[in-house]
Write a structure and sequence with these properties.
- The protein is 18% helix and 38% strand.
- 17% of the residues are buried.
- The chain is of the alpha+beta class.
Length: 260
């Protein structure tokens, strides 16, 4: 009888030891200082985090608009755009280094027909990056921009907060502004999402930096495009009418004006 009780006790002890030796599964998570819990399945917001900020949480892939078959100027300075596929063709304008174009007709006898900006013409194929190489390069060299999608001016703030005393500028409907960080999240009474922008059009943070509410802007990418000869002479955005006025005025340079 004693031996049976002893065996039973030993079996029970062994079972307890075996159960305690099985470790509890550990969560593959890591707590960030901004109140996020990261795990393999996603991000969980910690409701106890207050007035904290996290930058560059995530960005959605945004294609470069306006291009179906993109080409990029592979030159040190400018790529000439000509009226005809010949070196004797009239020069219509220039594509700056790393500027983008839509390829209209593939390489033929060393020339490719393109559309870039206001220009449609021909460029030397050897100076044009095309295909997947162009698509990959485009995302590296393109400017990340935010376009205001509202109907009234949008406030640009010094800090990512809705305080009345931190408004430093405003942007008009449809206006583009350079993005420094596509998503900055702040926590207070509610979660707010902001976009960090440069007011100087500089991709560094040495200039004037501000924040705009993410819900009021569309994020996209933009490549430089070709300039017409008129734009190169007078500057982008100058109309043909203004150009004619300037050219007319040049005729009178050097003449003394006489009143009456």
């Amino acid at each position: 009888m004693y031996n049976k009780l002893l065996k039973f006790s030993v079996a029970c002890m062994a079972g307890l030891l075996l159960a305690s030796s099985i470790a509890s599964p550990a969560m593959a998570t890591e707590h960030a200082v901004a109140g996020f819990t990261y795990d393999k399945t996603g991000i969980e917001i910690d409701p106890t985090a207050q007035n904290s900020e996290i930058s560059t949480l995530s960005t959605d892939f945004t294609p470069i608009p306006g291009f179906n078959n993109i080409g990029i100027a592979d030159v040190d300075t400018n790529l000439l755009v000509r009226e005809k596929p010949s070196e004797n063709g009239k020069i219509l304008g220039k594509m700056p280094k790393d500027s983008g174009c839509e390829i209209l007709e593939a390489d033929k006898d060393g020339w490719t027909k393109v559309k870039s900006g206001k220009l449609t013409g021909y460029v030397k194929s050897e100076y044009l990056i095309t295909g997947q190489d162009a698509s990959r390069l485009a995302l590296d060299i393109a400017s990340h921009i935010a376009v205001f999608n509202g109907t009234e001016n949008l406030r640009v703030r010094k800090d990512p907060s809705i305080k009345d005393d931190n408004v430093i500028d405003s942007i008009a409907p449809g206006e583009e502004i350079l993005v420094l960080d596509p998503l900055v999240v702040t926590y207070g009474e509610k979660i707010n999402k902001w976009v960090k922008v440069s007011l100087d059009g500089d991709d560094s943070e040495t200039g004037t930096v501000g924040y705009v509410a993410k819900e009021y802007v569309d994020l996209s990418y933009k490549l430089a495009q070709a300039y017409t000869m008129q734009e190169l002479e007078l500057g982008p955005g100058v109309s043909s009418r203004r150009s004619n006025v300037v050219n007319f005025a040049k005729k009178f340079l050097g003449y003394r004006y006489v009143w009456g």
